[in-house]
Amino acid sequence: MKYKLIACDLDGTLLDDNSVFTDKNADAVKNIAQSGVNFAVVTGRTFYEIPKEVRECKYIDYVIYSDGAVAVNKNSSKVLFSKYFTNDSVREIFNLLDSFDTMIELYEDGNPVTDNDKISEEALDYYSVDENYRSVIYETRIGVDDLSEHVQKSVKTEIFNVFFKNPNERLECMRQLKDFDDISFTTSMDNNLEIMPLKVSKGKALSRLCDMLNIPDSRVIAVGDSSNDVTMYAYAGLSLAPANASDEIKKIADKVICSNNDGVADFIYKNIL
After folding, report:
1. Cα(116)–Cα(137) distance, rounded to whole angstroms?
2. Single pTM value for the model
3. pLDDT tens per residue across span 105-139
4. Quick one: 94 exposed, middle or buried, by C-beta within 10 A (0-12, 13-18, 19+)?
5. φ, ψ for residue 270, nearest 5 deg
6. Beta-bridge partner residues of 169
7. How far is CA 120 from CA 123, 164, 169, 258, in A?
8. Taken in order 190, 68, 149, 134, is the CA torsion positive or negative?
9. Is 258 left (phi over 0), alpha (psi -120 to 50) or beta?
């Protein structure tokens, strides 16, 4: 078989619009694995944001999460590699983000942490959080009384995920973040930023995983729908964009396939492998 690993994003890709890992995709992942091809999830979510059905799927060996900050062999519970912010960086980045009208989330040791008062319909409306993502927030966020106090003792911080009320403030924040010499950042929604330690990206993590598995880039398929998937596309031998992907992604993909609601894994198994 030409391909040996499929690296697949979650939201807008492997999951449908309701963040469900459908039976159709689950069956396809099983068939892919049994045909001798590794299936890896590569997501901006942190580990415990990943749906239980995905986390417990024995046919998915590898998970790269928090935009590439951590990679695990899921079935052996082994951390393959990780990179976290220093505590000083966490505080400095938080202070910048907190100077804007934002909903700030820290992804820490596999869990997303935010202020208690931001886990409400009123707050999610205020920050225009996507309706399809809200159930994930309610199910996974760990609320704290004061995030500004929490960051003073934060450890194993993988990334920041932050929602902006004002698009112009988001642009200004991006401008100021460019002055930091120890971070990188990307986005997966129109009103968010995802801030990672320097040299962390989905593409770099995918490259590192494939080196560990001795799989050349020419034998890798990358599938994703938004800006934080661009680095995966640059690495993989074949890049696939779901029909619902952003225009930016569609323009650089080798092929546009079905939408996330039609079973991306199923399409790959039946039409690409």
Report:
1. 12
2. 0.91
3. 999 999 999 999 999 999 999 999 999 889 999 99
4. buried
5. -85, -25
6. none
7. 5, 16, 22, 34
8. positive
9. beta
